[in-house]
Amino acid sequence: MAAPRPLRSLALAALAALLSTTAQARPAPGAAAPQKAQAPVTLDELYARLKAAEDDAEAKGIAKLIERRQDRSGSATVDLLTERARQAMSGGDLPLAIELMDRATTLEPDWSEGWNRRASVFWRLQDHASAIADLKRTLVLEPRHFEAWAALGRIYQSMDDKPRALEAFRRAAALYPRMDNLQSAINRIAPDVDGRDL
């Protein structure tokens, strides 16, 4: 027995509404599927992209991303101490900058960038031995810290220790081949260390 006409019309209207809603929810043919949220890029991926970068602008952008990650100490107190140390350095108060970075590295001894920053202050104070010690500590904590390798190279170069300078510059170049002035520094030192072609 057929359903009464008003009931059948109501059922057909409900079915049409349901089909219309389903069609709207489904993407049109050829339309891009909705994108899933992407996982954050890891440091390992950033270092791989830095090494493979095909132009200077791309490499600099990736290097900045890496440096931003390294800048995170994980502690608001340490970040404040580090910012105050930066201000003290800018104002020429290097002893205060050292004191502040001493506190930062005491609070967060596993933060590689803290040691790298303290090394920069020691370098400004012409304390090469302390700067080298802090850079080596940086590199124990993060062996891919290309800025620390480059800084180590510059310090050894200033001490006329060309073999160590060349090794440090080459380690930096292996991580960041397009780093500013790095290849020219290697080209200047390499003949004295490796020997000149006859």
For the biggest sheet, the summary is: none
Average of per-residue pLDDT values: 86
* Series of H and E elements: HHHHHHHHHH
Count of extended strands: 0
Helix content: over 70%
Output the structural class: mainly alpha
End-to-end CA span: 106 Å
Fraction in beta strands: under 5%
Radius of gyration: 29 Å
How many helical stretches?
A: 10
- What's the overall geometry? globular
Uncertain runs with pLDDT below 50, 5 residues or more?
21-25
Protein name: Tetratricopeptide repeat protein
Pfam family, one: TPR_16
Keywords: Signal, TPR repeat
Organism: Methylobacterium iners
Could you characterize what this model shows?
- Residues 21-25 have low confidence and may be disordered.
- By secondary structure, the protein is mainly alpha-helical.
- It is 72% helix and 0% strand.
- The protein has helices at 5-25, 43-52, 56-70, 76-90, 94-107, 112-124, 128-141, 146-158, 162-175, 182-194.
- TPR repeats lie at residues 112-145, 146-179.
- Keywords: Signal, TPR repeat.
- InterPro entries: TPR-like_helical_dom_sf, TPR_rpt.
